[in-house]
Amino acid sequence: MTIDTWIFDLDDTLYPPESGVVAAIEARMTDWIAQRLGLDRTEADRLRHTYWRDYGGTLPGLVARHGISPEAFLRDVHDIPLTDLAADPALGTALATLPGRRVVFTNGSATHAERVLMARGLTDHFHGTFSIEHADFVAKPDARAFDSAFRALDIDPTRAAMFEDSPANLRVPSSRGVRTVLVGPSAPAEPFIDHHAPDLTAFLSQVGISGFPTPP
Question: Which of 85, 91, 164, 180 could form a disulfide with 119 if both were Cys (CB 3.0 to 4.6 A apart)?
Fold first, then answer.
């Protein structure tokens, strides 16, 4: 089956994890929880992890359990400097070789996605972004988030490939027929992971030259 839609996670997928962006966001989340719920930082960090585990993301847990304003949360936790994110022309060139549409699907906010893509020099290489606001604040790996994205972006999952740094976020798309690629240094042996891309740019460059490989 021909791939005509290429779906990319944002954080720790379209930039190196060592940039520290996710760590900065997580620290802001912990501080936000501590301040708004009147907790010490240790308890706030424990709660952040608990909601990430139980709800797929800290924000859905805070909305469900505390009725917080998701817009205010997203605005505050993503208000971080991106000075350590550099433009990546090689990745841009590799993305441009992919036939069809290229979209970003993130648990972050639309504003955060816009800032990251701009910092990486990748804005012009994507045809759309589906953020957590568009999913009514339901986060990956919840199946509802994926189904919302597929509907909103008019994606046929059997003609799509998805790139993610989180193995858990590939289980549902695989069940829908999406070709899955885990981005990062290691790859657990899971049946729902079709490919492993230790170097995203190199992997995409090869796909652009010879086509998407048949899953092993």
Answer: 85
Tokens of 145: 């988030």
**Which stretch of DSSP H or E encloses residue 103?**
strand 101-105
Give pLDDT tens digits for 173-182.
Answer: 999 999 999 9
Q: Find tokens 């308890």 and name the residue.
A: 43
Token pair 């709660």 is found at: 47
Reported as type and span, the H/E element at residue 128 is strand 128-130
Please indicate, yes or no, whether residues 123 and 191 belong to a single structural domain of this protein.
yes
Q: Give the residue among 91, 150, 135 at the shortest CA–CA distance from 116.
A: 91
Cβ-in-10-Å burial (0-12, 13-18, 19+) of 6 comes to: buried
Torsion angle of C-alpha atoms 187, 189, 193, 196, degrees rounded to 10:
30
| CA-based max dimension of the chain | 55
Taking the whole predicted model, whether its pTM rises above 0.90 is answered as yes
